[in-house]
Write a structure and sequence with these properties.
This protein is of the alpha/beta class. It folds into three domains: about 1-65, Beta Barrel (OB fold (Dihydrolipoamide Acetyltransferase, E2P)), CATH 2.40.50.140; about 85-230, Rossmann fold (3-Layer(aba) Sandwich), CATH 3.40.50; about 245-300, Ribonucleotide Reductase Protein R1, domain 1, CATH 1.10.40. The chain has helices spanning about 105-115, 135-150, 165-170, 185-195, 255, 275-285, 290-300, and strands spanning about 1-10, 15, 25-30, 50-55, 60-65, 70-75, 80-85, 90-95, 120-125, 155, 175-180, 220-225, 230. The strands form three sheets. A six-stranded mixed sheet has the order 10-9-8-11-13-12, with helices on both faces. A five-stranded mixed barrel has the order 1-2-3-5-4. It is globular and about 65 Å long. Monomer. Associates with 30S ribosomal subunit, binds 16S rRNA.
């Protein structure tokens, strides 16, 4: 039978039969390994799989179908293991907050680069705009303009009040979407606003550390009334990069890619080379310094702090 993985806990998986929509609790037959990648989860939410029913609604996954794409990160702790956040994605939403918690441009850029590398469109959702003062609203507008200039769609939302949730729902129609961001950024609240019937667990920000509590422990996919599927993911603290060659990196910054053919050298890394179109654009203000700083950090293999 062919199925779609809706939930992964690392040891068992909820798989829906594509033909009937019936959900089965499955485990893995043997050990699956991605070629060349030591990852913590051999099977990810969104994977298409072949499975056999053992008894009732229990089953065994026997094969993973080839993935169209996936979002993968390396843990920034000592283990350095990789983790596939979700696979076979049509659209990613990155939930961004100015404070409680702060989403840095470094984190945003690392997520965007990874999504670009696998051909996944990303929309930035600037959440909690109902809580910001005038100065903070100006900062949101500045950031949104920065990323629109780089080629990304940005929507200011309030998951708590429902502001612009209709725009998010319109973008989602008929697509498999993943929602990502830091713990406490409002991912589960957003999904509840999109479909109140789901009743996803949410938690208040920790006052002591001004960070979110991990309310979503495992990634899980939900079917929505508008024909979309949405994947709720655990909060991410740091985003370690995986699998990107230095020579390729420019291609995953859309505003860099648009200019790189103007560089004197076709293999320009945009660091010390003369007549570099990227550095000229920086000086002219058509490329943001924060984006260039993120580019250099990734190029030099620095961790997300």
């Amino acid at each position: 039978m062919e199925g779609l993985v809706y939930k992964s806990t690392g040891s068992w998986y909820v798989v829906k039969d594509i033909a009937t929509g019936v959900a089965y609790d499955c485990r893995i037959k043997g050990r699956f390994r991605l070629k060349g990648i030591k990852n913590t989860n051999p099977i990810a939410v969104g994977d298409r799989v072949t499975f056999e029913v053992e008894e009732g609604t229990k089953g065994i996954i026997t094969e993973i179908k080839p993935r169209d794409n996936y979002i993968i990160r390396r843990s920034v702790n000592l283990s350095k293991q990789t983790h596939i956040i979700a696979s076979n994605i049509d659209l990613a939403f990155l939930v961004v907050t100015l404070n409680n918690p702060l989403t840095s441009t470094t984190f945003i850029d690392r997520f965007l680069v990874t999504a670009e590398a696998y051909g996944i469109k990303t929309i930035l959702l600037f959440n909690k705009i109902d809580t910001y003062n005038a100065e903070e609203i100006d900062e949101v507008k500045f950031l949104a303009q920065l990323y629109r200039q780089a080629g990304y769609e940005c929507i200011g939302i309030s998951a708590a009040t429902g502001k612009n949730i209709d725009k998010v729902m319109t973008a989602m129609e008929g697509k498999t979407c993943v929602v990502s961001g830091h713990s406490g950024s409002g991912k589960s609240t957003l999904i509840n606003a999109i479909d109140p019937e789901l009743h996803l667990k949410t938690a208040a920000i920790s006052e002591q550390h001004l960070q979110g509590q991990h309310t979503t422990t495992f990634a899980e996919m939900f079917d929505l009334p508008n024909g979309a599927r949405i994947i709720d993911t655990p909060g991410i603290r740091g985003f370690g990069m995986v699998e990107i060659e230095k020579e390729e990196l420019t291609d995953y910054f859309p505003e860099f890619f648009a200019l790189k053919h103007h560089c004197k050298f076709h293999n320009c890394l945009h660091t010390d080379e003369p007549q570099c179109a990227i550095k000229e654009a920086l000086e002219e203000g058509t490329i943001a310094w924060s984006r260039y700083k993120s580019y250099l950090q990734i190029l030099n293999g620095e961790e997300d702090r």
